[in-house]
Amino acid sequence: MQKIYFDHAATTPVDPEVLQVMLPYYTESFGNPSSIHWFGRENRKAVEDARLMVAKELGANEPSEIVFTGCGSESDNMALKGIVSAHKDKGNHIITSTIEHHAVLDACKYLEKQGFEVTYIPVNTEGMVDPQEVFQALTDRTILVSIMHANNEVGVIQPIADIGKVLRERKILFHTDAVQSVGSIPVNVNDLSVDLLSLSAHKFYGPKGVGALYIRKGTLIHSFLHGGGQERNRRAGTENIAGIVGLARALQLANEHIAENQAKISYLRDYFIDNVLKHIEHVHLNGHRTQRLPGNINFSFEYIEGESLLLNLDLKGVAASSGSACTSGSLEPSHVLLAMGISPEIAHGSLRLTLGKSNSKEEIDYLLVVLPEIVNKLRAMSPLYDSSRASV
Questions:
Q1: Active site residues
Q2: Shortest CA distance to 174 belongs to which of 71, 97, 229, 236?
Q3: Do the Cβ atoms of 165 and 133 come closer than 8 Å?
């Protein structure tokens, strides 16, 4: 049985070129970058070279604007908690959206318990944030706005540049979670007009356990992790040299091939979406039809439980998900789909397929054969489906 991977939003395999540049830092170049001897100096240079590369790939003005972290979730937490801690004398109001990753939403809930006020901006039925609603929510106590660049479940790309331009004029700090977008679509911090941006290496064929936070020069932020003086006193802990080097190379490779990968993956995405909508009844495409990440496909199938759909696809050798991998153990329907106005019953029947650069049309064609078979089999066992057909 063939095995097909359609879960690239959860994680991606490490690119062989990335692995090659990482390997020496596990064996030969093992020095602590904080050490003053030759072994340490060699690795300090590797970290700073990587910082320069990441800054260049993101369009940052200076390498010092890049802080290496342990993951995207840490980057999000550092951005929110570090900013509000540093600016609480100016206000206590935060604005975010209802479809953020839990790294942002849970951080906001934590901050609410600390006395901060959070406004959650709704989205429309296509999963889009209206910039005007963000602007209308601003008060003289607003110190931070955090809106994700692209959603991890439905792939909808948000109008970050439109929001950022106005916030810059009003001198309100703006953070975006770009964990899903970096490496998939062009991302430039100046074009987006953001002050902080989060990313994670394992989403663009880099290693797990390493991320980064862009912090625009002049932005006051308190340390989130205390200890040593690493990362210019902004993030304590001995640096993950191999991971940092791998992140930088993975980002460079992703951007080098971004146009060709975007074209190929978008074609496969649209080909699959068109065929599913044409050949399967009672199915809904979740998220904006075109304003979405190249590889993101999210459907809801009526009269089917998403968990059963996933298990049957797995038996056919297809790896997919029903939403965010971070909440795959939850029995609750997707908070993103609920925020889009989708009923809990239909939200429970969601399927997320996220394509990568190695996927082929042959794999898509295989899925277009097995998916209708699975859908028909599961609906045949559903009393709700029988009732709906009887009432027609």
A1: 326
A2: 97
A3: no
